[in-house]
Amino acid sequence: MKIIVIGGGAAGFFAAINCAETNPNSLITLIEAAPQPLGKVRISGGGRCNVTHHCFDVGELINNYPRGSKALRGCFTRFQPQDTITWFNRHGVKLKTESDGRMFPITDNSETIVNCLLETAKKLGVKIITGIAVKNIESGFQVILKNGEILTANKILIATGSSKIGYQWAEKLGHEIEQPVPSLFTFNIKDTRFQDLAGVTVENVHLKLVTQGKEKLAQTGPLLITHWGISGPAVLKLSAWGARLLAENNYQMSLLINWLPEYNQDQLREYLLIVKNENPKKQIVSYSPVKLSKRLWQSLVIASEINPDTIWANLSKKQLNKLVQELSQGNYLIKGKGVFKDEFVTCGGVNLKEINFKTMESKICPNLYFAGEILDIDGITGGFNFQNAWTTGWIAGQAMGKL
User: Fold this and answer.
1) Of 12, 90, 120, 168, which one has the greatest count of Cβ atoms within 10 A?
2) Are residues 235 and 319 in the same domain?
3) CA distance 112 to 348
4) Which residues pair with 177 in a beta bridge?
């Protein structure tokens, strides 16, 4: 049986390996257009490779996928993070868990994962072609390479990630494509309140996207102020869940930031009044009574139209209300999206209704399979996108290997 896997990323390699393990007699060819396979694996996690997430409860796990959670529920009952850990352990790679649940190889080096996949594939007899792109897929399952070579297959897996050419092949073979738009990105915000604050982190903030005066989506988590705006887990999660909404608004939206979500506005006002009474002679700008960096506190105090020389005793009711508003509901304007270098993820892809998730086979074109990010599935940051690749690749590989 001849099987061709198009795409040498995590999903493609995992599918090819598991296909070869299921059916050692199959002839498997994996084709990757880039000179080196597993490019995203190499650079993810700052070169450490965030393999998966330490979340073994399927009901909880699927909550980390803005798109595809329903389809993945059944898939994860068959192959989930615990199975990923076991698989890599069986192939000589031990993983460790960090405090936020992300899992990395104990070597802290993505080459450990790359070498494991490459060596396992070669040991199983998978033929790996790199540096040659697929030009077309013809009816009768002929795969035409750009160098003119023609390969034939009984079964084909497309695992080309967010590559436009992969979507084009899927469409040509009868599939509907949900419009791809970026997911997991940072926010470009040019605001004087962030001036000279690059590198400042806040442990926990609450973010809300607002359009036409209506609050649409919200996320809570750590935030990092950058030279171009803001980043960090809270921003990345919000960009993932709001991928389509942000694209529809051309990445120009209002963002409300609550720097102190542990308080509601009344509690914060009451607390600041206590601070005022207990520290009457201290300068407001130089005495921060909350868990914010001194520089950020000073910026928000000045943004509240409080003179830097003002002492707590002289804080007016109007200034207090403005400070409470600035701390709990500061309004910022998103003026574009940045990139998150470790994860370049796309929302959109092959319509999930057209896939049999017990096998990853197309319901429209028999013997055609899909795995990974080419499907309309995407997760938040933290190893969830790789887990989608391992799971769908494993299912596809098992199914293709069966006669």
Assistant:
1) 12
2) no
3) 30
4) 350
